[in-house]
Each structure stands twice: as structure tokens, then as C-alpha cells.
Specification:
582 residues, alpha+beta, six-stranded mixed beta sheet, 17 helices, 38% helix
């Protein structure tokens, strides 16, 4: 019942959110107006104007319900099993969307030509035929809408997507997804029924059946074309998400978090991981290591072949979750590389699980370049769907899972640091696996982990992240910013025209300026595009950074620990993703 209630409420909130707006005209016209009862004038007797009489043309009253039913069914199936089905069939992940867009386009044309529409919807016309002006049931329209319908990804939908992406679909997941879809559908159905009521109550609309059909066809075609060019997403970014607070209130409590802890978050493989203490100084026993799953591609393996943990029984395994643009990972990787080089011949197998935080980190070429830059020679798995990340119930970049020769997780360390203790336990497990092994001396890599709270936290410029903006309102879309008179510590502000996207911000038309108030000895920026950044620390000497190509991390400052103000001038054509501090 908790899942059902959370799903329904989450869906209801989503059903009144800004991301619903692009489909409302189609729902109003195809589900509402087309189910209205219309009037048509007939000539009576001599055919004079005074001999006109009005006859009522009944409509398919079930149409709004069938449109919404089709949307609920297709949205549920696509969300839960779409990726799995396409994976089995070896089809592109976006083919469902493109097919649905094509269907919307065809149906839109059909609405302009009634005979063609009736032919299209004939398989769904279950009600016996009678004299109606809108014979189609609308179920096909709903199926197409559900396949392209992308509601705002709040915590409830995020739990559903994770479950579907990892294949952990049980009764609880189905209940949550179905209740969520029904919750979304309720406002849409009310809107469709309201559309029918408006048409029937206003006399001027009662004889406009053909006009509404044409309008519905145009709306459907416009939606299909708009989806091709992502116009709905661009429109949504112009509006603030006025339901975000409601979503947080719904899910930020212990009962909701426990109810949503499903589908690959806690399962039979990973249920014992809680027995390990983060950063423990001694070996513990935390159950059999969860499997590595859902990997899109392997790097640094013979012929790109995958690795199965069961095949490594008898040897020690270290799994490192990382992302190549993460500054915390960048400071941790030298330790992992050193362990691999030092203990590989003694029986240690290091496996890097690259779990992306940004969309650009899913690109195999970008990851491969990062692997080469860091001197990584051990196998790296591209966990682009976060399937392995989820199967390990991981929450941090970086994270280390140490597995003994029997396949049992013996140590977990989240975040940076704890390197000496981890290496000590690596040596213990190697000795346990082969008591006769002659281990080399310990590695000697400087621990550059900053003290907790001693540096400014990672700062994101994308609207989808938890940004620490110090200049007032910050949201997606194009707008002009001005540096404030006073800026809070450990924050950033903007000046000039900026376009804020979900993952980055870019200057519009001319150079944009960024001001960082920070505490750190090292400042780096993740940026992409073609151009340059001019950086000035506390009004001192200017440093020019040339940027070219895909997103990567560039050094802005490195030296003694300091509190300072860093002014940046960013040329057009650059996309600034984040700042990291060390």
C-alpha cells in the first residue's frame, strides 16, 4: 500500500507539472473535443433556409478513457521493459520513440482525412458501428503518446527507471509503475473530459466538428515534429518546476525511502553489503560479491571480452567505481594504478567500473582518452546504465570494493582516503590466497585527500544538479545575469548572457563571466567546445586556458591552500559543466 500511495501521489504531482504541457493540446483535441456530441443542419422538405432542422450526431463517449488507457499501458511497458526488450532484439534504444513519433505523424494526417483515420484505428474499434462522426476509439493515439511521453523525472520515476534499466522487475516495481502511470493519467483524463464539456456547452463549438478534427490533426503533427527537434524540452526549460517541492516532500522521509528501495537497489546479491563498515581498518565479511552486469563495453581486455567474477575465484579482486571527470576519482586513481602495477603479478585483479555522472561520460571515446591520460592498464567496464553501480548499491565516486579469493566482499571504502588501510588489507588477502607468495614492498603514493570541509565542494553549472549559486534565482533557460554586490563564500555567480542547460551553462553571443568564491589549493574546470578561458585570481596576473574538443578537466589554479576570488572570462562556444576543488 505504501508503494501504491507513493506512486499515485507522485503521478498526480507529475500530472500537473510543466512537463505535461506539450501533450495537453493533443489530449484536449483528440481525447476531449473529438468525443463531443455535435450538431449538423439538414434540409427538411423543400430545402429552403426556413426548412433547416438540426440533427444530433452522437460520438464515441469512451474515447477520452481509451486515449488515456493507451497512454498508461504503453508508458508502463516502455518504462519498465522497453530497454530490456530492445536489448534482447539488439535494436537501438531510441527506436520506440522514433516509431511512436512516426505513428503520431500518421495519425495526425489521418485526422485531416477521416477515411484514412478509420482505416488506421480499425483494429481498435471494438464498439459496434453506428452513425458517429468520430468512429476511431483513440486507443492508438494513446499508445503512441505513451511511448513518447517523458514526464519530469522525480524520485518516484527515478526508482522506476533504475528498476527497469537493471532488469530487477518484480511485483513491487510493477505496482509502483502502474500506480504512477494512473496518477499521471488522472489529471490528463480530467483535462480531456473538460475539453468535451467545453465543446458541448458552448453553442458556437457544437457545429465545428470538422474544424476540431483539423485542429487535432495539426496539433498531432506539430507535436511529432516538435519531438524530433526536442522542442517540448526547450519549452519546459523556460518554466520553473513548481512541483519540485511537492516531489521532495513526498519522498524525503524514511518510510518513502524504504518503499522506493527496490529494483536492483536491495536484492539477493547485495543484501549483505550492509555488514561492511565504510572505511574499516580491519577485514570484514559482507557476503558474496554482486555480479558485474549491464556493461556496454569493456576496455583493456583481450578483444573487448567481458569479465565474470566467478572466473576470478582463487584470486583477489578490487573493484573501483569511478568517472573520468570526477576530481575525487582523479586523486584516487594514482593509488589504484599503483596497486595494480605492484600486486598484479601477486594475484590482484583490479577492475574499474566507469559509472558516468554526465551524459558525455557515456561516450566510449571520451572514457578511453581518460583511461590513457591516467595510465590505467587494468580492465575498465563502461557501466552507462549504472546497472553494476546499482547492483552494488553504490552511492559514491570513487568507491572501492575488496573481494577475497572465495568471492566474498571483505572491505568497502567510499570516497577518497583510507588508502593505507586498503593496501594493508589487499596484502592480507593476497597472503591468505597464496601463503607462499613473496609480496613486493608497499606503494609510495602521496595521499592528497583534503580534510573534510576544508575545500569548496564540487560546483555544478547544469540546472539538473544541486548547484551552489550565490546570485539569486538560477534555472534552465536563457537570461542575463549580473554579479551581486556581495557573494556568499564557496559559491559562484554569473555575469552577462548565459544559456543554462541541464548539465552545463554556455555564454550567449559574447564573452560571459564567472566569479568563484572558493577555498582550495587546486581548482579545475570541466569544459567542452572551442574557445578560451581567461582566469584571474584576486585581480592578479591573467592565465589563459585554450579549450578544444569533448568535455575534459582543465587546471585553473594549483598552489598553496587559499581563500580567494577567481574571475573567469569564458568565450562563446564553450560549455562549462562544473568546478572541482582540491
Amino acid at each position: 500500500m505504501d508503494l501504491i500511495l507513493i506512486g499515485l501521489l507522485g503521478g498526480l504531482i507529475t500530472g500537473i507539472s510543466p512537463c505535461i504541457l506539450p501533450v495537453l493540446p493533443v489530449i484536449f483535441l483528440t481525447g476531449g473535443a473529438q468525443s463531443a456530441t455535435y450538431e449538423q443542419g439538414d434540409a427538411a422538405g423543400g430545402g429552403t433556409a426556413t426548412a433547416q432542422r438540426t440533427r444530433t450526431l452522437p460520438a464515441k463517449r469512451s474515447r477520452p478513457y481509451l486515449v488515456i488507457l493507451g497512454l498508461v499501458i504503453s508508458f508502463t511497458i516502455v518504462t519498465l521493459a522497453g530497454s530490456l526488450i530492445l536489448g534482447v532484439l539488439n535494436l537501438p534504444q531510441d527506436i520506440i520513440r522514433w516509431v511512436a513519433i512516426g505513428v503520431l505523424l500518421i495519425i495526425g494526417v489521418g485526422l485531416l482525412f477521416p477515411g484514412f483515420e478509420q482505416l488506421l484505428e480499425k483494429p481498435f474499434s471494438w464498439v459496434p458501428k453506428k452513425e458517429v462522426k468520430n468512429q476511431g476509439s483513440g486507443f492508438g493515439v494513446g499508445l503512441a503518446l505513451g511511448a513518447v511521453f517523458v514526464p519530469c523525472a522525480g524520485p518516484v520515476l527515478a526508482a522506476i527507471i533504475v528498476a527497469g534499466a537493471t532488469g530487477q522487475i518484480g511485483l513491487d516495481t510493477v505496482l509502483l509503475t502502474t500506480s504512477f502511470a494512473i496518477g499521471v493519467a488522472v489529471p490528463l483524463l480530467i483535462f480531456a473530459l473538460a475539453g468535451r464539456s467545453v465543446v458541448e456547452r458552448i453553442r458556437a463549438f457544437r457545429s465545428r466538428e470538422r474544424g476540431f478534427r483539423i485542429a487535432a490533426g495539426i496539433a498531432m503533427i506539430a507535436l511529432a515534429v516538435g519531438l524530433v527537434f526536442n522542442v517540448p524540452q526547450q519549452l519546459q526549460r523556460l518554466l520553473p518546476d513548481y512541483t519540485a517541492g511537492l516531489q521532495r516532500d513526498l519522498t524525503e522521509n524514511e518510510q518513502a525511502r524504504e518503499a522506493l528501495n527496490l529494483g536492483g537497489l536491495v536484492n539477493d546479491e547485495n543484501k549483505d553489503l550492509d555488514k561492511c563498515t565504510n572505511g574499516a581498518e580491519e577485514l570484514e565479511s559482507c557476503g558474496t560479491a554482486p555480479s558485474i552486469r549491464g556493461i556496454e563495453q569493456w576496455l583493456n581486455t583481450p578483444n573487448g571480452e567481458g569479465i565474470v567474477l566467478d572466473d576470478l575465484k582463487g584470486e583477489v579482486v578490487l573493484i573501483d567505481f569511478w568517472a573520468y571527470s570526477c576530481i575525487n576519482c582523479q586523486r584516487s586513481i594514482p593509488h589504484v594504478v599503483a596497486w595494480d602495477e605492484t600486486y598484479r603479478d601477486a594475484g590482484l585483479n583490479v577492475i574499474g567500473i566507469h559509472s558516468p555522472e554526465y551524459a558525455f561520460e557515456k561516450d566510449a571515446g571520451n572514457v578511453k582518452a581518460g583511461v590513457e591520460d591516467f595510465g590505467i592498464e587494468y580492465p575498465v567496464a563502461l557501466d552507462n546504465t549504472l546497472s553494476t553501480w546499482t547492483n552494488y548499491r553504490n552511492r559514491y565516486w570513487p568507491a572501492h570494493y575488496l573481494i577475497d579469493a572465495e568471492g566474498t566482499v571483505r572491505h568497502i571504502s567510499f570516497g577518497e582516503g583510507n588508502y593505507a588501510a586498503t593496501e594493508k588489507m589487499i596484502r592480507e588477502l593476497l597472503t591468505d590466497a597464496d601463503p607462499s607468495a613473496q609480496l613486493p614492498g608497499e606503494t609510495d603514493v602521496e595521499d592528497t585527500t583534503p580534510d573534510v570541509g576544508s575545500t569548496t565542494r564540487e560546483t555544478f553549472l547544469g540546472s539538473s544538479k544541486d548547484v551552489n549559486f550565490g546570485g539569486g534565482e538560477y534555472r534552465a533557460g536563457e537570461r542575463d545575469y549580473t554579479f551581486p554586490e556581495g557573494q556568499p563564500s564557496d559559491s559562484f555567480t554569473l555575469d552577462g548572457g548565459w544559456n543554462v542547460e541541464t548539465q552545463y551553462a554556455e555564454p550567449m553571443g559574447e564573452n560571459g563571466r564567472i566569479r568563484l568564491d572558493f577555498t582550495a589549493s587546486e581548482v579545475r574546470v570541466v569544459v567542452a567546445g572551442e574557445g578560451e578561458i581567461r582566469a584571474t585570481l584576486d585581480g592578479g596576473e591573467e592565465k589563459v586556458i585554450d579549450v578544444s574538443g569533448t568535455p575534459r578537466s582543465y587546471e585553473l589554479l594549483k598552489g598553496d591552500s587559499t581563500d580567494g576570488i577567481l574571475d573567469l572570462e569564458v568565450s562563446p562556444g564553450l560549455q562549462v559543466y562544473s568546478f572541482t576543488f582540491g
